[in-house]
Amino acid sequence: MDSFPKLLLVDDEEPFRNTLAKRLKETGYEVAEAGSGLDALETLSEGAIDVVVLDIQMPGMSGLETLSEIRGRHIGTEVIMLTGHGDVSSAVEGMRLGAYDYLMKPCEYEYLVVKIQEAFKVKKERDERLRKAEERSLLDRMEKQIRF
Amino acid sequence: MLRQRLQQTQKRLTRTIILSSAIPAFLVAAGALFFALAGAEHEYRRVASEEIQFHAEAYAREVQSRLQSALSTLDAFDTIHDSQNFDSIDSFFAKTKTAHGWIEGMAVVDENGTNIFSSGSPAELPEEALSSGFVSEGRQRSIVMTGVHTPANGPAHFFIVAKTAGTGQAVYLSANAVEFSSTLDKVRFGRTGEVFLVNRSGVLQTRSVMHGGILDVTDEQLILEQPEAGIIRTREWKGTHMWYAVTPITANPDWILVAQRDEREILQAHETWIKRFAVFGIVGLALLAASVALSARRTSRIQTRIEEERTLLADHQLQVQKLDAISQLGVGIAHEVNNPLAIIGEEAGWMQDILKRDALQDVPGSNELRDSLRQITTQIGRCREITLKLLSFGGKSDGIIRDVDINALVSDTITLRRREASKKNIEIEEKPATHLPVVHTEPTLLRQLLLNLINNSMDAMPEGGRITISTREAEQGGVVLTIRDTGFGIPEENMHRLFEPFFTTKPPGKGAGLGLSMCHGILQRIGGEIFVTSKPGQGTCFTVELPLTPRPKTTPIG
């Protein structure tokens, strides 16, 4: 398994998104971009994304709505929220909906990278557990088949 | 100006109270008093009249029955008389005498007045009585009752004469008028109420307190052609007003029974009663007036206090509004600045990333560029700090007041900071009280308040430590929240400036000095107090007292 997760960067502010994507690519990540919640969901349905960096305040489908959609459809994907709000309540709401963490915007790049790595680690561990559980259930099934 | 207007309004209020409450009350009270007095007078007159009436009738009956029984005695005697048995007549009379003490004697006379037989000590029958006794001729028996006479010697008498049919004789009873009078003399009602008999010429037949002895002449107003019973009359006699009632005596058509009483006495009791009632009424009205005056004074005093409190409240509102306006402005600016700031930050970072490429490592001046970009990122960090604080200072409140379980809110908020804290080697401990009352407040603001205090504590413990957050119920209702840390504490000299905006002891760029003033602002909005105790080197303890319900929220103008 790769040590760099596949990222999806969701932000309606294009210059910010572009530059951050460039930097993340420079660091070594594979980065997909989406300018809205709907775009993000589309991208997610196309391919495997490990970590989503999601802006909360967006026109149209809001970050929190997008987040709940992601949690509903792609259970294996971790979400880090970016918030331009001083509004702690939406961050708390996000945490409750299952986001990995939240960062106040503008955030330090290094801090963001650390968070991404942490989230990825959590995801990897979970994937591993899931894989093992699957293997075990497969083995169980095979065992049963052999017995009969 | 304002004060004068206030005074005028107060005066108007007082006047209104007096006019609207006192005057109707006075009218009602005065009306009640008037009707009570009028009713009482009417009642007094009625009772007095009835009393007189009653006496007039009752004693007329008494007199009537006495005379009637005398007459029946005479009737009975008639049969005995025929037998010429004088002994039996004597014993009969003795029996009659015991029943009627006022009958002195009895005698049988012939037409010339010659005494044939007598029993007891009868007075001599006057000439005119004798003749009237023999007026009716024939077999028909007739009985005549005379008026009172006074013989030359001896007491006053009256006679009852009956002509015996066929014999040419008459029998008569001689009655002692003084004795007869004594029964009526005893009758008294009140001080001046009395009963007496007069004849049709107004001559007294019994004694009277007012008019004198037997055969004294009363006033001519008592000479009545047709004495009607059941009517109360009034008359004046020698300057005395009297109420009286008369009843004719059927046994002696010449006689009238009079019951009378002095008007002064009747009205005197009434007047005493009126006086008492008037005193009571006046005292009542005075009390009423006093209470109205008192209530007016009190109302105006309360009004003044309300006005003062309103002024205080308005000041307070103004301050809250000012704070609101400042924070709204701050939030607006911070919000607008934040996004460009994020872009600048990312662009600078990108430039730094490019400069890290191998090809650009040794380009002349690249180090200068690196220093410059580092400075830009540092300053962006500083700006970020401030805008974040400003954003939270505004406390983007949703204004929604809910029932909040403080323990749940505390653990929620701690969840937000636990990861950060553990990194700094800080342990956050919760000590929730059981059975905590539910607080009616704005959870968003309360969460920010708590978050600020936790951040402060974390900043005070660069070497790590422990934050203890406990809740408990306040004695006077409400909830007390304490945040205790084991940080470096607050020096004494800084204590009083703690909640001032932009007051900070952190080095420039590390803190905007908005955290605690924000907490103060939040408590201004949701109600509650914040206290701080600190021992330098040992730690700080913030205590937040929250009321169960929020302070009446001030509505912003516009």
Q: Overall mean pLDDT score of chain A?
A: 87
**Spatial separation of the terminal alpha carbons of chain B:** 27 Å
CATH architecture of chain A: 3-Layer(aba) Sandwich
The fourth-level CATH homologous superfamily of chain A is Response regulator
Give the total of domains of chain A: 1
What fraction of residues of chain A sit in β-strands? 15-25%
Low-confidence stretches of chain B: 552-558
What count of structural domains of chain B? 2
The quaternary structure here is: heterodimer
Question: How many E strands of chain B?
Answer: 17
What do we call the CATH topology of chain A? Rossmann fold
Strand count of chain A: 5
SSE ordering of chain B: HHEEHEEEHEEEEEHHEHEEHEEHEE
Q: Structural class of the secondary structure composition of chain B? A: alpha+beta
Estimate the mean pLDDT confidence of chain B.
81
Helix content of chain A: 55-70%
Q: Regarding CATH, which class of chain A?
A: Alpha Beta
Radius of gyration of chain B: 59 Å
Describe the structure in brief.
The complex is a heterodimer of chains A (148) and B (558). With 148 residues, chain A is an alpha/beta fold.
Q: How would you describe this structure to a colleague?
A:
- The complex is a heterodimer of chains A (148) and B (558).
- Chain A is an alpha/beta fold and 148 residues long.
- Chain A has a single domain, classed as Rossmann fold, CATH 3.40.50.
- Chain A has five helices and five strands; from the N terminus they run βαβαβαβαβα.
- Chain A has a five-stranded parallel beta sheet, sandwiched between helices.
- In chain A, helix 2 packs parallel to helix 3 and helix 3 runs parallel beside helix 4.
- The longest helix of chain A has 39 residues.
- Chain A starts with 5 loop residues before the first strand and ends with a helix.
- In chain A, 41% of the residues are buried.
- The mean pLDDT of chain A is 87.
- Chain B has two domains: 299 residues, no CATH class; 163 residues, Heat Shock Protein 90 (2-Layer Sandwich), CATH 3.30.565.
- In chain B, 50% of the residues lie in helices and 19% in strands.
- Chain B is built from nine helices and 17 strands.
- In chain B, the strands form four sheets. In chain B, strands 2-1-5-4-3 form a five-stranded antiparallel beta sheet, sandwiched between helices. In chain B, strands 6-7-10-9-8 form a five-stranded antiparallel beta sheet.
- In chain B, helix 7 runs parallel beside helix 8.
- Chain B is rod-shaped, with a radius of gyration of 59 Å.
- At the A-B interface, helix 1 and helix 4 of A face helix 5, helix 6, helix 7 and helix 8 of B.
